[in-house]
Amino acid sequence: MRAEVIEKLAVLITTSFGLVAVLAWNEAIQAIFQAIFGTASTIPAMIIYAVVVTIIAVIVTIWIARAAKRSKEED
Question: What does pTM read for this prediction?
């Protein structure tokens, strides 16, 4: 049971660090978006921001999945 608790804690801690990284990237992307397009408080600007972030997330997810697949094939 102790190993299971440690394993779950490791997953939770890793996930927490992932969330912190996501929030940091969110702030950075918002700052870049505001520098390029000005204020991001209007609805069209917020929609454009959401679409851009979604496209980036999809591309990165596909890239990571392909890298993981290649890594498994090498093993």
Answer: 0.56
